[in-house]
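Input record (one chain):
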Amino acid sequence: MMTTSLSNNKTFEEVKSEMEKAMVIYDMEYMHLLNEYSEWYHEKMLTIQSILSECTNDDMDIMQSIQCKYDINTFLMLMTKNTLEVDEYEELKAKYFRIKNIGLEIHNRGGFKAMQANFYVFIMFLIPRNDIDEVKKFKDLKYLWNGVGDWEE
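The corresponding structure, as predicted from the sequence alone:
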């Protein structure tokens, strides 16, 4: 599996500072994000960032197939296409359920607005921006959270 460097892992204070600057620069209507985003949420989103950084785009496709509960034929095609071993599938399945459970924890703590706020902060301030394929991979979180709480994609 290809991994992404997490050298850009930002502290909670760094993210809050960047958010404040962005709010001033763009006069954004997302001021409620500053109130929604806390250190607890930050740790959860860093966990998701760490999990996704270990995944390839093919891994993301497989995790989305787990999320979508594809039929067995689609699943077998994905396994064949990606020459996935059973233990690799189980590892991706565990990663998917960890990401899903974090989404559920966020939803249980702050509802749909908290999920939106955390996704926005994740996309805008936490993920690496040096590779378009990597950005796409991290944005696919929106598909992995489909059906978690009130989240729909």
